[in-house]
Amino acid sequence: MTLLVDSHCHLGEIRADPAAVIADARAAGVDVVIDIGMGKTSSADAARRATVIDGVYAAVGIHPNDLADFETDPDAAMNVLDALCAEPRVVGIGETGLDFFRERSAHTLQERAFRAHIVLARDRDRTLIIHCRDAHGRVLEILDECGAPPRVVMHCFSGDVSYAQECARRGYFCSFAGNVTFPKAAGLRDAAAAVPRDLLLTETDAPFLAPQPFRGKPNSPSLLPHTVAALAVAAGVEPEELAVDLRRNSLRAFGRVAF
User: Fold this and answer.
1) Rounded to two decimals, what is the model's pTM?
2) In a domain, 93, yes or no
């Protein structure tokens, strides 16, 4: 079986020893995990874990729902992320983006932070990892205005078929999480089927969004095969065939590494 890549996981949020989590994931057929930062401290922790746990890579960023550090001193906040990019196993910038659903930060502040992350991803040749909730059109507008970096991942894709097609037209990767397995998520599965196979990724977003039949329980990278199975049904292919594509796509999406 082709081994899987979890393109988005928050190891620091999982209530278990990270090394044990990765060992369980490897036993389940997942040998690479991208550990995602959501602030200065969690980003530094993710970068550290990537240096000591085999199979772990990191992304560094400040989440749009937690922009206090950025608001206080934008330059200092971004300098911390910039310095973390010196670590070779830091492969992404994010998660960043816009959240107009929770609105814990003003739209203008979120957009300033998003633009700063776009610039950093471009300058440091790192993959941009985007959180988008109820802000689909605005995310694309800002990417178009700023000039997106060569590699963009739409994390936990939540748009419809039309949005998937717009992202694909721009060459953005679309990553689907455990919610694509939910019984009432037919629209999300339709969107996944509309994504060209060479732009499709998968993730856990652990410890959030555990797939069926584990919904409501803590998620973990070891559960990723359940999401891959649902995506394979949506795409009309066998899971192993899709797994080959997903691994190839992950290599391209996080192009600095050769896992």
Assistant:
1) 0.97
2) yes
Residue 225's closest CA among 10, 38, 29?
29
Closest CA to 62 of 21, 148, 121: 121
**Over the stretch 139-188, which tens digit does the pLDDT of each residue have?**
999 999 999 999 999 999 999 999 999 999 999 999 999 999 999 999 99
Number of domains in the chain: 1
- Flag whether 243 is in a domain: yes
Distances (CA, A) of 94 to 26, 106, 159, 214, 217: 24, 19, 19, 27, 25
Residue with tokens 């078929």: 161
Judged by DSSP in three states, 5 sits in: strand
Q: Residue 259 falls within a domain, yes or no?
A: no
Q: Domain range spanning residue 52?
A: 4-253
Among 75-79, 208-212, 251-255, name the one with the lowest average pLDDT.
251-255
Q: Residue 9's domain is classified under what CATH number? A: 3.20.20.140
| 219 located within any domain | yes
- DSSP E strand boundaries for the chain: 4-9, 30-36, 56-60, 90-99, 127-133, 152-154, 173-176, 200-202
